[in-house]
Structure formats: structure tokens, C-alpha cells
Amino acid sequence: MRIEDRLFLNRFLPDDRSHLVIREPENCRRCERKQCTYTCPARVYTWEGERIQVAYEGCLECGTCRIVCNEFHNIDWHHPRGGFGVVYRQG
Ligand code: SF4
Ligand code: SF4
């Protein structure tokens, strides 16, 4: 099964508050590579206009963005609150 098909099996219970918070938007403007935009497997981060948009509802909770944002450490990363977030389904 293709990875896209596997990801389609997941279900999401989004919270009304983001568990991924950009600490300082100005740091994203200074960030040359903007590596969060191409390393997140769920495409949560996009650069639009002059700021990072965070579509936290689709987060897979893999932790990649927390690691790759290694110049500015600009992502305040938490798991979603209990009862919210991704629900993985195997198959
Ligand atoms: S990698 Fe970090 S500092 Fe760079 S754009 Fe993404 S969140 Fe901002
Ligand atoms: S934890 Fe993983 S899926 Fe969620 S925003 Fe970060 S890189 Fe994307």
C-alpha cells in the first residue's frame, strides 16, 4: 500500500487550540531554509506571504519539526491535549 493510502486511513480529532506554537514569527522571516515546510510529512507548515502558517489539525505527532527547527528552536511543541490529535489505523 502506498504511504498516501496509509495516511488516508488516519483520523483526526482536532483541538480548538494549537499544540504547535511559533515562538517568534520574526525568526521565521530570518530562517533561510524554512526546513519545516518541506520536512513535515503532513505538510503542516506553509510559507504564505510573510509568515508561517501552521495547519496543526493535520499533525501526525512525529516530532520531526521540533528537531529540524535547529537554528532558532522556534517551535513550542507539545502533544495535543488528551482525547485530541491523530488516531492511527493500521491496514
Ligand atoms: S524551521 Fe523553524 S524558524 Fe524556520 S521557518 Fe520553520 S518554524 Fe520558522
Ligand atoms: S510533529 Fe510531525 S506531522 Fe506534526 S507538524 Fe511536526 S513534522 Fe509535521
What does this protein look like?
The protein has 91 residues and is an alpha+beta fold. Helices cover 24% and strands 22% of the residues. The protein is built from 4 helices and 6 strands. It has helices spanning 3-9, 25-30, 36-39, 64-68, and strands at 11-13, 20-22, 45-48, 51-54, 75-77, 85-87. The strands form 3 sheets. A two-stranded antiparallel ribbon has the order 1-6. A two-stranded antiparallel ribbon has the order 2-5. A hairpin with a 2-residue loop joins strand 3 (45-48) and strand 4. The chain is globular. The mean pLDDT is 94. It binds iron/sulfur cluster (2 copies). One iron/sulfur cluster is lined by residues 20, 40-42, 44, 59-65.
Classified by CATH, the class is: Alpha Beta
* SSE-based structural type: alpha+beta
Bound ligands, each once: iron/sulfur cluster
Please tell me what the overall shape is: globular
Q: How much helicity do the residues have?
A: 10-25%
Number of domains: 1
Strand runs, count? 6
Instruction: Detail the poorly predicted runs.
Output: none
Span between N and C termini?
A: 9 Å
Q: Provide the CATH architecture.
A: 2-Layer Sandwich
Strand order of the largest sheet: 1-6
What's the SSE blueprint?
Layout: H1 3-9, E1 11-13, E2 20-22, H2 25-30, H3 36-39, E3 45-48, E4 51-54, H4 64-68, E5 75-77, E6 85-87
The structure holds iron/sulfur cluster (SF4) (2 copies).
One iron/sulfur cluster binds at residues 22, 27-28, 31, 34-36, 45, 52, 69, 72, 74-75.
